[in-house]
Design brief:
The protein is an all-alpha fold. The chain has one domain. The protein contains six helices and no strands. Helix 2 runs antiparallel to helix 5 and helix 3 packs parallel to helix 5.
Amino acid sequence: MTKTARAPRTNARVVPLRRGTTVEMVRLVCPDAAQATRIAESFGLPVLDSDAIRDLHQRLISETADALDEGVNERAMQIHLQRIVGSYVGSAHGAGQFYSRAVTEAREATAKLANDTRDEDLDGPVGFESAAQRKREFAAEVAVQAHALRMAAEGAAAAYEHVVGESWKPFERQPEQPGETVSRKAAEVQMAAFG
């Protein structure tokens, strides 16, 4: 009986490269100032001062950097601010995605209401809101929140650019080098000796 020679098995570890969330991605999912104002006025919610939120967060991050300037070198400051801005951007992006889902649910509930042959979606008793109305109001509240977090993220990113001198980009882990290390080659040779 002859054995067929098998090629040595290589266990390649694949690390999925996850793209970081950018400020542009936040802008795509969160309402802008005009849309947030329209929504707030339509639902009787407070109209936010978008510029004030943005400016406050820009000052907050800039003043934090100024306070740390004596004890933290440039590279450490860049890393520290990278993480802070990343948390603002991530929070705003999450809120924007939640807002998108809330709007989808509100649209679906409202579309069902338009169908006269469905009993379960009809308005409740007099004096009570329908489920569709509650979903629309919830989506409006979430829209204002997502917009506020967007402005905070934009302010933080602007501060990063002011302090560091370059535009903020999300941190992305560098993929491992595909070249083999000496220990990996040695392990393959040793394993090949077993047949």
